[in-house]
């Protein structure tokens, strides 16, 4: 009996996983909002035969915590719509005020929730999938590129941690950071004009450091080299 139940649960989880993978596709892993333009947009497509209800909104980050959507100076249009099977639509993000810095980027989050349509039946489970991607507002006065900014990063060891300093105007999101060829874990990003620190791997005292960042299109940069 226990074996039968375990098999049934595993099959159910696999079914849910396949359903989530086959759902709505967001056309990017991040959205860069050019401050010199009136709006920014991203494509949403539905490769399924099943229609989905799409709900979208923007929220912010305050001291590392998620801020309510009403505090984010952006609106998404359309905020709620039906996306039929094998169709696509465009989400437009428009700035709605806000006193944002003009000398460095600001980070927000674009949330896209997809709810599949389903016939009303007893004992059915409906799963809504939410995709959350970075929305980075880049002021028109920021002329430097991510690659130029990556070259300005400085690294140093502080105890059992490694500290990175970012004097640039950009958010730098790391794809990987390696010391002597070994990848560090839980390395995320560093905010503009800020520091960030991460745990060093056990037994590492120094040596050659390399890193790659994620560019505006979700791709990875060439490796950069430094020494500790």
UniProtKB/TrEMBL annotation:
**What Gene3D superfamilies has UniProt attached to this entry?**
Immunoglobulins (2.60.40.10)
Q: Which UniProt keywords apply?
A: Chaperone, Immunoglobulin domain, Periplasm, Signal
Q: What is its main location?
A: periplasm
Pfam families under this entry? Answer: PapD_C (PF02753), PapD_N (PF00345)
Recorded superkingdom: Bacteria
**Domain Pili assembly chaperone N-terminal positions:** 23-142
Signal sequence extent? 1-22
Q: Which residue numbers delimit the Pili assembly chaperone C-terminal domain? A: 164-221
Kindly list the places in or outside the cell where this protein is found, as annotated in its UniProt entry. Answer: Periplasm
By sequence similarity, the record places it as follows: Belongs to the periplasmic pilus chaperone family.
Please report the name of this protein according to its UniProt entry: Long polar fimbrial chaperone LpfB
Q: Which organism is it from?
A: Rahnella variigena
């Amino acid at each position: 009996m226990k074996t039968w139940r375990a098999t049934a649960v595993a099959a159910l989880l696999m079914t849910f996983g396949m359903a989530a993978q086959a759902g709505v596709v967001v056309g990017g892993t991040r959205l860069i909002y050019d401050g010199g333009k009136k709006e920014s947009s991203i494509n949403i497509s539905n490769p399924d035969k099943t229609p989905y209800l799409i709900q979208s909104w923007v929220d912010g980050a305050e001291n590392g915590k998620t801020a309510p959507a009403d505090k984010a100076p952006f609106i998404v249009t359309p905020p709620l719509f039906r996306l039929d099977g094998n169709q696509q639509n465009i989400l437009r993000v428009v700035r709605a005020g806000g006193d944002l810095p003009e000398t460095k980027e600001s980070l927000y989050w674009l949330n896209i929730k997809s709810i599949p349509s389903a016939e009303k039946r007893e004992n059915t489970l409906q799963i809504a999938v939410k995709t959350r991607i970075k929305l980075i507002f880049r002021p028109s006065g920021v002329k430097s590129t991510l690659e130029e900014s990556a070259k300005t990063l400085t690294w140093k060891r502080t105890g059992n941690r490694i500290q990175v300093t970012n004097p640039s105007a950009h958010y730098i999101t790391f794809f990987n950071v390696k010391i002597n060829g070994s990848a560090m874990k839980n390395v995320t990003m560093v905010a503009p004009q800020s520091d960030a620190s991460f745990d060093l791997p056990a037994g590492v005292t120094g040596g050659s450091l390399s890193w790659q960042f994620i560019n505006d299109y979700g791709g990875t940069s060439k490796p950069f080299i430094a020494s500790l």
